[in-house]
Design a protein that fits this description.
The protein is an alpha/beta fold and 371 residues long. It contains 13 helices and ten strands. The strands form three sheets. Strands 5-6-7-8-9-10 form a six-stranded parallel sheet. A two-stranded parallel sheet has the order 1-4. α11 links the parallel β7 and β8.
């Protein structure tokens, strides 16, 4: 761990893990009405205990619950707020669809003013903390995800003044973060795919058709994240993860960080950036020249989409290349995204998932020394 008043480790991960067969079965039975909520909860609890133990056994200093209580990494959290409903109709992704799959996520509909009569996922963190020996981290979608992925017509019909929308959304986020902190959360991860995806011309065109200026919208999204993180306690570490989509080993977008780097890297009030860098789709390390010297960068060099194992020497070479822009002590290695951003999971086995994580731990130890 580097010298800092906040924890930073040279190996990390994004947070979601492949669901074990018994969890898939229990969730299917719950959807069919064959088991109740309490029975499903018991299976979830047991599977979370096991995935936390796996992370700690491998040597990961930070652990998550694998997002085992979620179907969709972002939609489930946002749907926990009042005013947001889900629909299987609509085409919110337009030209920016997940590749090579007919299935797409449900559409979020903004039916009313956004409120938080109760926590969205506070109980998820409470259980994680109760079973973790290492640092428990909670992951939540960026507030930008609601604006970027919701049905825009319903949003603008409910909020004729978008400043009111952003204010309401920031308020419910601050309430959730406050309660997480009070329950002992000291490491928070904000997932925002809009940052990386905005570099794709097809995505830019989609937003232009909605009347948005893509670069200006990137600034608005950064402001939205900062508003959600306003007045954070000084001992709460915040990481920002961004990628180009992750669903059944498919993706949504391509393009490097150059288009958004100057705005996002300099403006977001995050301590650590988790960046996708496993394929040429992510571009070069050159946009890291905009990264402030006090920020940490977790290089997502290992693919969580495909089972083929990376070569250690290649990974070390790429870490060395990144030091042209970010000091070695401010770098870390991880998979480029989660292994199961949705309940479906990516195309690999549990053993391959463990092998990928173990590879990250081994490379970290050989480059930086044991944490």
């Amino acid at each position: 761990m580097t010298k800092s008043n906040k924890p930073f480790f040279h190996v990390d991960h994004v947070g979601s893990f492949l669901r074990p067969p018994e969890l898939h079965q229990a969730r299917a039975e719950a959807r069919q009405g064959r088991i109740g909520k309490s029975a499903l909860r018991m299976t979830e609890d047991q599977c979370i205990r096991q995935v936390v133990a796996m992370q700690e056994r491998i040597g990961l200093p930070v652990v998550t619950d694998g997002e085992f209580r979620r179907d969709w990494w972002h939609i489930d959290f946002l749907n926990g707020f009042e005013g947001i409903e889900l629909s299987d109709s609509g085409d919110v992704y337009a030209d920016a669809k997940f590749k090579d799959t007919a299935e797409q996520p449900p559409t979020m509909i903004v039916r009313g003013k956004i409120r938080r009569p109760r926590p969205s996922m506070l109980d998820h963190f409470q259980f994680l903390k109760s079973v973790a020996r290492n640092i428990p981290r909670f992951t939540m979608p960026s507030p930008a995800m609601l604006h970027g992925r919701a049905d825009r017509a319903s949003l603008t019909e409910t909020y004729t003044d978008l400043s009111e929308f952003w204010a309401d959304l920031a308020a419910v986020y601050r309430e959730e973060i406050r309660d997480l902190y009070n329950e002992g959360c000291r490491y928070l991860q904000i997932d925002d795919t809009t940052i990386a995806m905005m570099a794709d011309p097809a995505v830019q065109e989609r937003f232009r058709k909605l009347g948005d200026d893509p670069l200006k919208l990137t600034e608005i999204y950064a402001d939205a994240v900062n508003a959600a993180l306003r007045d954070l306690p000084s001992d709460l570490t915040v990481g920002i993860h961004t990628c180009r989509g992750n669903f059944k080993s498919t993706f949504l977008a391509s393009g490097g960080y150059e288009f958004v780097a100057e705005t996002v890297f300099s403006k977001l009030n995050a301590d650590t950036y988790f960046l996708e860098y496993d394929t040429e789709r992510a571009g070069s390390f050159e946009p890291l020249r905009f990264m402030p010297r006090d920020k940490k960068v977790v290089l997502g060099l290992v693919s969580s989409k495909f089972p083929e194992m990376e070569n250690k020497d290649d990974l070390k070479r790429r870490i060395d290349e990144a030091t042209r822009y970010v000091p070695l002590e401010n770098l870390a290695i991880s998979p480029q995204c989660g292994f199961s951003s949705t309940y479906h999971g990516n195309v690999m086995t549990m053993d391959q998932q463990v092998a990928k994580l173990s590879l990250c731990v081994e490379v970290s130890a050989e480059v930086w020394g044991a944490s």
